[in-house]
């Protein structure tokens, strides 16, 4: 099954996926989609910080290592101007329901720059008192001064990169990080106020034996984060050149990846976490676990979320915005992004206007990725008669599925529990864009 289905398929953090956005379509589409926003609904905001003070060889993010801080401070200035220009374009301050700072390493920002960003956001948005404010954090950056900056932002969740605690694996990915430093950073964040913690762990890393991964999982559990993300390392050296520093012969094979993912997943569940979607775990009381139990789990560019906002505004180089009617991505090179914003032009470079077909397929794919199933009656309630051909398509796929990955009981199309690690493959059956274009993805498991 793995040999047959271990193909490269998207992670479906959007539908269609970013490689299908059209070049040059960004700026006019962004203007049009902004005009469709109303002052009543809340929006989410994503800020991208494409800088790190180190370069991990496994990294697949839009970031670059910088030893000097001046370009980072200058970038924060540009971000604040992009946020202010968005507010002017809109003519009102939208309600902000959730904010995520990602990268790169936003934790690399000096406390004063974090304060500048917080002020720019408060000047442009009406921040809801219960807004979730999450920040991606490299523990090696966190000092007491940085914590003061995070407090100025009123951060409510820290998402901490661990990957693997074993020194041999860390040497193979150029990411030294001791358990003690990670533990102390978490203690510092927790004592600074009400902060919930997410930890990122990777399987499929070079020289990562089952024993090394198991020991990492045990240490992660000892830190008692509210959430864990367990991602499969995506080795795409054709896209991320520095990944060529990782020796292919050190990487675990497909079967080892699957058994590692399954074993680590069972260990988190044994330790009291609830499994969420394909790669997340959360304690029972965490909002993500609550959303999953009640069928309200969503998937966006950051992965799984309990955030119900339909609109996500992305600021910064490469950031993607999602509106009810389409997607827009800012230009990726940091220099070009700066030139556009400083010239008073929109940073939007690529975009995609959603069709009726995309909306229904996107909904089906999101439900399969979040709930491993699809309620065909719910589909009909949402989309009316337009849903009928898609329900027929689902029934036909279930009837012709040679390996029994899915089953239909009553009006529910569901991925079998044993096939859940192939959820991306089943989702891809509904992807009308998959075979068009040049896009390449990471392996399904
Ligand atoms: C922006 S980083 C996290 C914050 C911070 N920069 C750090 O590294 O601690 C986001 C996460 O993406 C995941 N990630 C990065 N490159 C990846 C890859 N090639 N495949 C799978 N996951 C990857 C890692 O788990 C990482 O923690
Ligand atoms: S994993 Fe995090 S710290 Fe490492 S290069 Fe990527 S974004 Fe930077």
TrEMBL record:
InterPro entries attached to this UniProt entry: Coprogen_oxidase_HemN (IPR004558), Coproporphyrinogen-III_oxidase (IPR034505), Elp3/MiaA/NifB-like_rSAM (IPR006638), HemN_C (IPR010723), rSAM (IPR007197), rSAM_horseshoe (IPR023404), rSAM_sf (IPR058240)
Catalytic activity as recorded in UniProt: coproporphyrinogen III + 2 S-adenosyl-L-methionine = protoporphyrinogen IX + 2 5'-deoxyadenosine + 2 L-methionine + 2 CO2
Listed GO MF terms: coproporphyrinogen dehydrogenase activity
Top-rank taxon: Bacteria
SMART domains named among the record's database cross-references: Elp3 (SM00729)
Keywords assigned by UniProt, alphabetized: 4Fe-4S, Cytoplasm, Iron, Iron-sulfur, Metal-binding, Oxidoreductase, Porphyrin biosynthesis, S-adenosyl-L-methionine
Gene3D superfamilies: 1.10.10.920, tm_1862 like domain
Main localization, broad class: cytoplasm
Cofactor: [4Fe-4S] cluster
Keyword field contains Transferase: no
Record bears the keyword S-adenosyl-L-methionine: yes
Quaternary context: Monomer.
Protein function: Involved in the heme biosynthesis. Catalyzes the anaerobic oxidative decarboxylation of propionate groups of rings A and B of coproporphyrinogen III to yield the vinyl groups in protoporphyrinogen IX.
PANTHER family recorded: COPROPORPHYRINIGEN III OXIDASE (PTHR13932), OXYGEN-INDEPENDENT COPROPORPHYRINOGEN III OXIDASE (PTHR13932:SF6)
Name this protein carries in UniProt: Coproporphyrinogen-III oxidase
Organism this protein belongs to: Jiella sonneratiae
Name of the gene: hemN
